[in-house]
Predict the structure of non-specific serine/threonine protein kinase.
Amino acid sequence: MASFVALFLLCSFFAAQLCNATDTITRNNLLRDGETLVSSGGNYALGFFSPGNSKQRYVGIWYNKVQEQTVVWVANRDNPVRNSSSGILKIAERGNLAIYNASSTNPVWSTNASLPGSKYIKPTLIYMLLDTGNLVLCDEDNMADFLWQSFDYPTDTHLPGMKIGMNLKLGTSWSLRSWKSPDDPSTGDFSYEMSGAGSVEMFIKKGSQKIWRSGKWNGQGWNGVPGLRANGIMNFSVASNPNEIYYIYSFHNTSVFTKAVLDNLGFIRRTTWAENTKRWNILRSYPDDACDNYGRCGSFGRCNPSYYPSCSCLPGFKFKSTNEGDALEGTQICVRKRELLCGKGDGFLKLENMKLPDTSNIRVDMSLSIKECEIQCRNNCSCTAYSSAYVDGSGCVAWFDDLNDVRDFPEWGQDLFVRVDAIELGKYC
Ligand SMILES: *[C@@H]1O[C@H](CO)[C@@H](O)[C@H](O)[C@H]1NC(C)=O
Ligand SMILES: *[C@@H]1O[C@H](CO)[C@@H](O)[C@H](O)[C@H]1NC(C)=O
Ligand SMILES: *[C@@H]1O[C@H](CO)[C@@H](O)[C@H](O)[C@H]1NC(C)=O
Ligand SMILES: *[C@@H]1O[C@H](CO)[C@@H](O)[C@H](O)[C@H]1NC(C)=O
Ligand SMILES: *[C@@H]1O[C@H](CO)[C@@H](O)[C@H](O)[C@H]1NC(C)=O
Ligand SMILES: *[C@@H]1O[C@H](CO)[C@@H](O)[C@H](O)[C@H]1NC(C)=O
């Protein structure tokens, strides 16, 4: 009885915040600055916030159970409500979700779902904050079908179940864009996206400049990211069909919060929340070492972080200049030692445990064995290297022209077979 009374008092005290906490916005309710939606299991909250020292108001989603406010999604990142606390979030024309400030009838921000034509709002349309952190628009008559979802518009955070990749049907992509600064969630310089060409690979880019790449998808993980494939606590997968190709992940213990964030300095950090220490623990952070910086040793270069200088050339290549300063700065260019005479005694040298070259210019054939892969590469004089497509030895990937961003990758790398001239081949046989 006593606890019932206590609960009752608590409820009347926090009435607006706690006991009436709802996970939906309908045609008949709206969300004012200061109020929050809370997902049904209590994992996530949605409301207005100001990051860091900012006075601007944004609508975002954060962890409801994590004390230090950790925002995972921002609706109006480039269109804040200025310095007031009079923002309103509600369903607007045609069922789009819109943010208004006090003084205007035009929204500061709005979703742009392709909803049926008229301005009329179907009464059964609702926005619901799910316990996965996804804000979805659905029709109460058909809850399984999302007409719009925040997971399709990532900010800087990749949550479990969220796709990063390409919607081939619409010609759009799912990618992360960094915040400008910890005080400013507006669109920053860095992106984290899947490569458009050839194979499946993740890139961190600054504008169009590549900063880091994950290495090729190898069936279980990324060729250049250690441990993940053997790490039993997480499940990474790539799925592709004619409409889309994407990368998702999950944590086997679904009660652990985990996320990958592209920060404003261009680092991807994968963290998990530790309830006992009340901290985000870093599992992985990229770029990691000097050899992780994209293209560090140039075309046909080879980077090994445990050597100094770390750059050398792939077999059959040498530095164009012998200037030591260039070597230390890694500004040397690798050129062929001798002309490659195709079909005149040339062949392939095996390099073990490598992060395979940039996959922008490759051909993949999953039906070929490694032996057939070699034959195909040998028979095409512009083929410079080949490898198994997957870490289990299946499939064939062949490179044409330059080999870029190759590094030694002890324990986690794959075998790379590089085409060399007859004399180079003779040195090793
Ligand atoms: C909000 O902005 C108005 C107009 O720019 C300004 O006059 C006012 O001082 C600001 N209020 C605060 C609390 O910063
Ligand atoms: C309110 O929003 C309108 C439309 O975006 C904008 O023109 C106006 O400056 C905003 N006022 C404030 C105080 O943010
Ligand atoms: C909204 O979507 C329509 C059609 O999908 C497009 O033509 C229009 O430019 C979009 N508007 C905004 C503001 O993104
Ligand atoms: C990993 O995730 C994929 C896609 O969701 C799923 O098909 C697969 O069964 C999962 N594997 C494990 C071991 O949980
Ligand atoms: C899952 O994580 C929760 C929270 O950290 C922990 O209490 C629980 O023991 C974990 N379950 C398993 C099966 O590891
Ligand atoms: C070699 O491969 C390239 C790239 O796939 C292709 O364009 C070219 O036609 C091939 N050449 C021969 C002789 O098969």
Residues 2-13 form the longest helix (12 residues). The pocket of 2-acetamido-2-deoxy-beta-D-glucopyranose (ligand 2) is lined by residues 81-82, 84, 101, 103-104, 106, 108 (CB under 6 Å).
